[in-house]
Write a structure and sequence with these properties.
Blueprint (H helix, E strand, L loop, with lengths): L9 H15 L3 H11 L4 E4 L4 H13 L4 E5 L6 H14 L3 E4 L3 H11 L8 H20 L4 E3 L16 E4 L4 E4 L7 H11 L51
EC number: 1.8.4.10
InterPro entries: APS_reductase, PAPS/APS_Rdtase, PAPS_reduct_dom, Rossmann-like_a/b/a_fold
Pfam families: PAPS_reduct
Length: 245
């Protein structure tokens, strides 16, 4: 369980503590059903439309249909991601809520530091992520009581401690990761057996997909997140949406 942070209420901390034990060993379906019963439309799935998120969306339509789905459109997503969003809207009959960064912040960043400032240093990259991702996420979560992600422990060294239920004190709500214990094989087996659509970039060697300038295909011996901000050390490859503990 993550340590309580300043914005978490005592009630949220107690709920997280009480429910963490039994959800720790619950199936993804059970976690989503619990989320539906406890929060309903006051919870939302945060989706970047990678394969994990597609599995999550498919499961949620069956076990937690009230959950909203939102995405952060940084303005630099690959075309394949936008294509998949349209597939999701039509296949599942859902609204995908879209949150953009603040126009003035992006304009100032690019005007003063250029279009690729994020390659200059870790601090510069975090500045770009803070504007394009972290700030929009804060707005997306401002009216929620819980959010659901596709995080898995197997994805990278920065995610080995991911728990099924976490207290997200930074945003003052609960964070659920129903696929935390799933392996890559589990994910793709589900996709193949259930006919779940997925991002075309996965077939081109992209196991993890983010902004186009910050994502590349990986080699067979590299981990799943090696193609994200590949010029940085492996223990730094997070954008701030999911702080490293």
């Amino acid at each position: 369980m993550s340590s309580p942070l300043p914005h978490a209420t005592p009630a949220q901390a107690l709920l997280a503590e009480a429910e963490a034990a039994h959800l720790k060993t619950a199936s993804a379906e059970q976690v989503l059903a619990w989320t539906e019963q406890r929060f309903g439309a006051n919870a939302a799935i945060a989706s970047s439309f990678g394969v994990e998120d597609m599995v999550l969306i498919d499961l949620a339509r069956q076990h937690a249909p009230s959950l909203h789905i939102f995405t952060l459109d940084t303005g630099r997503l690959p075309p394949e991601t936008y294509e998949l969003i349209e597939v999701v809207r039509k296949r599942y009959g859902v609204t995908v809520e879209t949150y953009f960064p603040e126009r003035e912040q992006v304009e100032t960043l690019e005007s003063t530091k250029g279009c690729f400032s994020f390659r200059q240093s870790l601090e510069a990259r975090k500045e770009c992520c803070a504007i394009r991702k972290v700030a929009p996420l804060k707005r997306a979560l401002s009216s929620r009581q819980a959010w659901v992600t596709g995080l898995r422990r197997e994805q990278s060294v920065t995610r080995t401690a991911v728990e099924t239920l976490e207290l997200d004190g930074a945003h003052g709500l609960l964070k659920l990761n129903p696929l935390a214990a799933w392996s890559t094989r589990d994910i793709w087996t589900y996709v193949q057996t259930q006919g779940v659509p997925y991002n075309a970039l996965h077939d081109r060697g992209y196991p993890s997909i983010g902004c186009a300038p910050c994502t590349r295909a990986v080699k067979p011996y590299e981990d799943e997140r090696a193609g994200r901000w590949w010029w940085e050390s492996a223990d730094k490859r997070e954008c701030g949406l999911h702080p490293v503990r």
